[in-house]
Amino acid sequence: MSWIRGKDVPVGIVFICGLIVTVAYFINVPAVVGVSEAIQTWAVVIAGFAIGLGVVNMVVFHSDSIRKRASGQWPYSVVFLVIFVAQTVSGFFDLAALKNPVYVWLYSNIFSPLAEAMYAILGFFIVSAAYRAMRVRNIETAFVLVSGLLVMLTNAPIGAAIWEGFPILGKWILDVPTTAGNRAIFIGTGIGTILLGLRILLGYERGYIGG
Amino acid sequence: MSILVPGRITGLVVMAIIVVLGIWALERAKRGKVRAVRELAGMAGLRIAAGRCAEMGRPFFHTTGHGGGGLYTARGPQHMAGIAILGYIARLCAKLGVKAVSLTAFPELIPVTEDTIRMAYLGEGKADQVKPDMVRFLSSYALAFKQGYIGQLTREKAGAASLCGAIWPSDALHMSEPGVIIGAMQIGGAIDTDTLSMLALTCDYVFLGEELYAAGAFASENPTQLSVMFASDIVKIGLVLLMIFGFILSSAGVKIAQLFTI
């Protein structure tokens, strides 16, 4: 079968599956729709198997980091592996309800506070990013500053208290120029998505099999 | 019962037109009729970023983001586009002796990114430089993924970072602001306009919307693939004409919008 090259098989599978799923979106033929749904279910199942791959990847990375005493990283790798094992093992007890006290304690006292801390950090990041955005360096950044101020004055109650026209101006900025720009990007993205799909189905774009 | 699903016929017609034009452009390019395409600024940005990493002796980080779904979801095309950009980054890094690191939120992306990096280094004759820690799975949970990304980016002091793919607006700022703090050059790319506004604040170069998908064609350095940009431009000109036509007819009282709901 020398006429079939190494990457022709996956490209052929992608072409057939992609064509069926695309056609099934537009037609009312139960047989085709059924096959399309089966293909999509397989995709979910195959991706589910990959979680094992993820666990191996994480354990190998952090074990190597500890073994090599990777600068700045290895203490975190120790913490990761300890909590990873504790959380996994405790999760096996009372598996259905996930009510094991160790599991719940780890989740409530380590996982949740760390997750919530991320949202808190976002507030500071927005301020520093907004400061950079609002610096007037040329005519474009001047537009950003003026538009940003008007929209802020629209959303903050003080804007309308200062002048009734601020909410009208801010709403116009959001409804007209912003919406027009957004729609232009949406249209371009839609066309780009279809053409990327075409390149993938025809085998020009092979990034998913290593190029 | 109609064979075609009601309400999706216009979409089918538009998609068919785009596909036919795309195939025509590809066939035209195969016959040697290739149109010159202006390179995206982001592609030059990737080359500058890789050079910067080589000068500083620092790694080049890449992620396709979390974005709420992996390869098999509606976010798949964005991850695919991000992986195509990773292939280009990995080739640049292999040429310059830079370590390319891909951080992923979805385990199904691990073999894909591993293959992409390995093939890129192999193509440049640097297979010996491929290391297991170049592809790292962090977490499928968005906040944990972002924490892992920020931690590793700052601890390893990446010289450059590419956030191209399925990036959420809050992820965009969470993940790119630490890059600004450590002085990394950053290239972003997304299709969501909310995300793009965040990336524009923190990144040196941004692939805007459709450019994210086009970047894959540029990354391939294959004139045939680039020819689909020509098809895209023709469709856009057609849509602009359609909008003008629709504006005139709607102003004249013709209910043209109903035609597009079939």
Task: Record the SSE blueprint.
The complex is a heterodimer of chains A (211) and B (262).
Chain A: H1 8-26, H2 30-67, H3 74-92, H4 101-133, H5 139-155, H6 157-162, H7 165-201
Helix pairs in contact in A: 1-2, 2-3, 3-4, 5-7
Chain B: H1 9-30, H2 41-56, E1 60-63, H3 76-96, E2 100-104, H4 109-123, E3 135-137, H5 142-155, E4 160-164, H6 169-181, E5 185-190, H7 193-202, E6 205-208, H8 210-220, H9 223-226, H10 228-251
Parallel strand pairs in B: 1-2, 1-4, 2-3, 4-5, 5-6
Helix pairs in contact in B: 1-10, 2-3, 3-4, 3-8, 5-6, 6-7
Question: Keywords, please?
Answer:
heterodimer, A: mainly alpha, extended, B: 262 residues, alpha/beta, Rossmann fold, 6-stranded parallel beta sheet, 10 helices
Number of domains of chain B: 2
CA distance, first residue to last residue of chain B: 15 Å
CATH architecture of the largest domain in chain B: 3-Layer(aba) Sandwich
| Terminal CA distance of chain A | 22 Å
How many domains in all of chain A? 2
The tally of helices of chain A reads 7
Q: Give average pLDDT of chain B, whole number.
A: 91
Q: What's the helix count of chain B?
A: 10
N-to-C order of helices and strands of chain B? HHEHEHEHEHEHEHHH
Q: Return the CATH topology of the largest domain in chain B.
A: Rossmann fold
Radius of gyration of chain A (CA) equals: 26 Å
- Biggest chain-to-chain interface with counts: A-B, 62 and 84 residues
Described by its quaternary structure, the protein is heterodimer
The largest sheet of chain A, given as strand count, sense and whether it forms a barrel, is: none
3D shape of chain B? globular
